[in-house]
């Protein structure tokens, strides 16, 4: 209102009786959700056409990008973790969601692991931060853990949440004996299971199913995690690709995966295969 008459020129944030409203052509825009830049050059978070001064967290703007608001105002200086409007946690850099970040983030007394900008509560691995490696369990650094842990490079010995490069010794993990040499863990031969058969089926021209069969090993099978098939070079010294696999347990232990090829499987026919496992 302006002098008792609706001001159809009013656009943006307008203060009325103690509340800030978002106006479009003189009307309160109840359907607007996003950020609005005011004359003070600050960006305010608007939900349902009103500024949410009670909101702190990540909110989506009309440009489909996420920004960090602190008490309703974008804080361009903030970098760290923030919860969005769907209660998921993400990494923020300079007030904006950063999907490129991978690594550890310190937040309110604890360290968390971010992958592609997202705090993955289901992620367990050994993660590099700075010049050291740390054990992350279900998205959070576990300072109390002592023992073997795995990442994509192999198994490592962890002491108080950190990879101990100076440790060498022996131990038992879930019923399996292992040897540690300068932090690197090798499981003893008695814990291994060898592939006894490799078959190809369901050939379609560009796809086929590879099935590896091995003797049953209850200790290895009870580790949990996800199985896969490694496609390796002919010498068996290099992993060329990792194929997600399904598992069938019967009289033997079988792992199957679908292999795609654009070279009529020339590479596949010369390759070696192995059953892999991810924690």
| Proportion in β-strands | over 45%
Overall 3D shape: elongated
What are the segments in which pLDDT stays under 50 over at least 5 consecutive residues? none
Structural class: mainly beta
Count of helices? 2
The radius of gyration is 27 Å
Q: What would you call the quaternary organization?
A: single chain
Describe how the helices and strands are arranged:
Elements: E1 12-16, E2 19-24, E3 27-28, E4 33-37, E5 43-47, E6 50-51, E7 57-60, E8 66-70, E9 73-74, E10 80-83, E11 89-93, E12 96-97, E13 103-107, E14 110-115, E15 118-119, E16 125-129, E17 132-137, E18 140-141, E19 146-151, E20 154-159, E21 162-163, E22 169-173, E23 176-181, E24 184-187, E25 195-201, E26 207-214, H1 218-221, E27 226-232, E28 239-244, E29 246-249, E30 253-260, H2 266-270, E31 272-278
Antiparallel strand pairs: 1-2, 2-3, 4-5, 5-6, 7-8, 8-9, 10-11, 11-12, 13-14, 14-15, 16-17, 17-18, 19-20, 20-21, 20-24, 22-23, 23-24, 25-26, 26-30, 27-28, 27-31, 29-30
